[in-house]
Amino acid sequence: MKQPTESYKIIYDHDDKITNWICQGLNDNKSWLDSPYHTIGFVRDNHLIGGLIYHNIRPKRDLWWTIYTTDKRWCTRRVLKKIFGLAFNFLQVERISILVSTTNLPCIRLVERLGFKQEGLLRKYRDDGSSCFFYGILKSENKWSK
C-alpha cells in the first residue's frame, strides 16, 4: 500500500526567519546578502525543512538563488512551479544563477535536472578554499512556470 504524502506549507514574508535559518544551516552569516531580497520557506510539522533566498536582484535582468534544505522531499512539481514562477513571472528576470559546491553531488544532480546549465568553475572560491560550479538558467529554457 502506498504511503500518504506528508503535506507541508509554503510560507512567504518571513525573510528574517528564513534567512537566518538558511545561513545557520550553511554555517554562514548574512553579511553577503544585499537588499532587496525575498525568501520562500517550506514548513512541515511547524518546522522549516527548506528555504530559498532570491537575492542580488536586477529587475528585468537576473537574480541569484541560495537554497538550503534538511529534507529532500521539499522539491515537488508544485514547489518548482512556485519558485520559478516567482523569479520569471513575478520578479520578471531573464535568468537565475546559482553556485553549487563541486563536492555537493545531490545538489549538482538536482540543478541539472531542473534545467540549469553549468557555465563555469570558480576555483577555491569559498572561505574554506573549496571550489564551486556556476550554473544558470534562462527564462526561455525554463519548463516549470510556463
Mean pLDDT, all residues: 90
Q: State the distance separating the first and last CA atoms.
A: 34 Å
| Share of residues in helices | 10-25%
Strand content: 25-35%
- Overall morphology: globular
SSE topology string = EHEEEHEHEE
Number of strands: 7
- What low-confidence regions span 5 or more consecutive residues with pLDDT below 50? none
Total count of helical runs of at least 4 residues = 3
Sheet having the most strands: 7 strands, mixed
Strand order of the largest sheet: 1-2-3-4-5-7-6
Question: Compute the gyration radius: what is it?
Answer: 15 Å
| Secondary-structure content class | alpha+beta
What's the quick description here?
The protein is of the alpha+beta class. It has three helices and seven strands, in the order βαβββαβαββ.
Fold and architecture overview:
The protein has 146 residues and is an alpha+beta fold. It has helices at 15-25, 77-90, 105-114; strands spanning 9-11, 38-44, 47-58, 62-69, 95-101, 117-122, 132-138. It is 24% helix and 34% strand. A 7-stranded mixed sheet has the order 1-2-3-4-5-7-6, with helices on both faces. Helix 2 (77-90) links the parallel strand 4 (62-69) and strand 5 (95-101). The longest helix is centred in the middle third of the chain and has 14 residues, at 77-90. The protein is globular. The protein starts with 8 loop residues before the first strand and ends in an 8-residue tail after the last strand. The relative contact order is 0.14. The model has no long low-confidence stretch (mean pLDDT 90).
Question: Which terms would index this structure?
Answer:
146 residues; alpha+beta; seven-stranded mixed beta sheet; 3 helices
